User: Fold this.
Amino acid sequence: MFLRNDDQKNLFALARERRDDAFSMRQVEIRSVIELSNICRQMCRYCSMSRGSNIERYTMDECHVLEMADFLYGCGRRVLLLQSGENPSPNFVTFVEECVRKIKACHPKFVIILCLGNLTMAQYQRLKDAGAERYVLKFETSNPELYRALKPSDTLKRRMECLHLLQEVGFKVGSGNMVGLPGQTIDDIVDDLYLVGSDDLSMMSCTVFIPGEACDFHKEPKGDVEMALNFMALMRILYPKRLMPTTSALETAKHGGLLAGLEAGANTITIHDGTPPELADLFPIYTKKRITPNAKFIEELLTKTNLTISTGPLV
Assistant:
């Protein structure tokens, strides 16, 4: 985890070799994201959207979501991420279900990824039946005690149960951790690497802790970006056939972080062009100062690599 300089370059080179063996077309999957709502029942101490935060809350209306989906499809996007705070209320889940159903009816080639948090098996089933194919549910840390300290409204056991429910329902599932959380040890991070491999995931991810202005940890130092990148490279080496994003948090924490993620073996990038500008600052994961890459930024980024944009989903 502590590799730097030439040792880190060698690690990254091996990660890219493993990625390119598994994905021989050397393509990057581009996702657009629509951030549906920032209403959340969880009390995550590292997140500015926590239930206890005093940020202004919003939920997009269905017409606006469908308009944005039409726009993104016209831009050539074929993978769409619908994300929100965790809100298991019947009305909200029905809203997402209808959005998914109508988007798929208009654009059946869209692959829809959901990131909505812990729900019931019946709710997962409804969303799957509506047409969603993938679901992202990060475990954040493999240490149950640390998890409870960071997320007093949840448990790691419940999180893992939800991951397994998603797999039972038939979703292609993604999960992962965060590096640099207050109270996290190097042993915890090593255990995270094992937990990522314990389930049959289609997607895996690692992000770096960034203290948000409205969270309990706003005075804590940001996480070690290089350690997060090394973790990504190790994931790619150990689990080469999965999708792995280079995240906007890496760019927020370090100029050139998105490029470094690709060098560490990533093959997915999210473009933040689906949330209306007037709402973007109201979805502070994890800070209002986050970098939200647009299409031009990504095109310029990929010119610095030997990777190309995939015209469709990679898994």
In short: The CA atoms of residues 177 and 206 lie 5 Å apart. The longest strand covers residues 27-37. The mean pLDDT is 95.
